[in-house]
Structures
1.
Amino acid sequence: MITEGAGIPLAVSLTGGNRHDVTQLHTLIEAIPPVRGRRGRPRRRPDRLYADRGYDYDTHRRAVRAKGITPHIARRGTEHGSGLGVHRWVVEQTIALLHWFRRLRVRWEIRDDIHEAFMSLACAIICYRRLFR
């Protein structure tokens, strides 16, 4: 899941339970819809990407930079307290909001397209609640 700064989900991807999250990084970046900026200056994607240590690979950093996004990824092997947690809690909060929906808390559907549809509906409800508060 990729969210914007206020916790509104921009892109969601469904994978198997034992897959590493970094395998979906490029797919999620490509799935981000166009973001409107100031009038006359449309932007394709957000300016910055904040990620945890699991995404700290030079190949992924280069790929994100090639898309015109500045990566802010914590380095592996360094001390905790890099300050990225201030930005990362937004994603964790949005994932917690997805668990409000009982059908998403535990996956009961065998077919992945049905589960992905429920996930899309839940993201739409989260967007609606965030925008009209």
2.
Amino acid sequence: MSEFNNKVRMGMVGGGQGAFIGAVHRAAASIDGEIELVCGAFSSSHENCLATGKALHINPERCYATYAEMFEKEAALPEEQRMQFVSVVTPNHLHFPVAKAAIEAGFHVMSDKPATFTLDEAIALKEVLDKHDVLYGLTHTYTGYPLVREARDRIAAGELGEITKVVAEYSQGWLSEPPGPDNKQASWRLDPKRAGVSCCMGDIGVHAANLAEFMSGLEITKLCADLQPVVAGREIDDDGNVLLRFSNGAKGVLIASQISVGEENNLNIRIYGTKAGIEWHQQEPNTLIMKYNDKPAQLIRTGVGSFHPVAAGSMRTPAGHPEGYLEAFANLYMDFARQVRAFKDDEASAKLSSKAPGIDEAIRGMAFIENCVAATRADQKWVDFKLENVL
């Protein structure tokens, strides 16, 4: 392979025609020109897989009927041709078997969240990773936004003082009525056999929890939860409220809802400290607000002024040219591509300014989901945040 064609080579499991998130992953991975999609097992239907590959201009010989076939045949290709990592964009119940098979075949893995179907599977996945020399990344997308990264660094630098309160909300309205029979995205999310023990908290609440920990630098230690299905006939939650306690004693509130009529993708977070507060809204991602008691609030805009290095390196366009969801996704893929390039080079790896969320975040995310379900079922008010044996 020519030295001028040394893109990181990606395969994909899931994301065939009719799927939503696979197209998002592909678009994000391509933005910076560092990653090339070379193969896929895009669907359980080989016909759909071939049609998807044709639309994406992929060699039909590398559009596989199953992910097992893909891993076997890709591993047999010359090193300079085979895929280097696989993007897993299937429904939740397939995340673990696909990731496990990829790791055991020697491929790096970038997985959509939640990482697995259960916490036990996430723990088992870490055990598999410990036995194989490969990378694992998780697309907690919102950690890729430049101003989220800026907020994290400002908080770490002490600009807010001691953190005292965290308020995170993720509200949507798209499941406020029973979905039609052709709504593929709703059907599997509301099916406990494919989504797991939670719909709303597993789909979006876990993002808010991850964002709260990522930005604050704290960990959730206790919670009090109330999850429920609001729409009649559902087996798992479509709405939930959670009280939080953090590792430094700070208190928190997390709201997640998919039945909040009129809400689109209203993820927002406010973090308060003894010196200042900070606020960010996903639907206005290029604005960060710093708030004070003794002086006017500060409006921070992407691309205007100076930023911490990781945030600055995550920006692509001049001020006033909005960057959003795809670019945040792309930052995670860029981080992961750099990790793949630096793989087995300790010095190069140490120089990386940021890395994609990994297996530790995967385990904490699954633990958050199951702890919320356990807390809802519990008789006591507060439950400890446990990392194993939750349900």
3.
Amino acid sequence: MPKEFNLIYYMAQKIGKPLSRNHLLDKIWGLRYEADSRSVDVHISHLLDKIELDPKKTEYIKTIRGIGYKLVASQED
């Protein structure tokens, strides 16, 4: 749970900005290599289950293909 909180808190500070998996690994986990980027995906998935009405049609956390994720305010893309 603390990682999820740290992740959403960090993303809220960077609202609207695309954040790469590697960047999030560095800032939240303190890791600087690509091997564990799947950890970000797993934690994002848990957040989607908690904050989205439909985790398949997200409103707040958007996947940016080939980059990572971004947190958006309401219906913003």
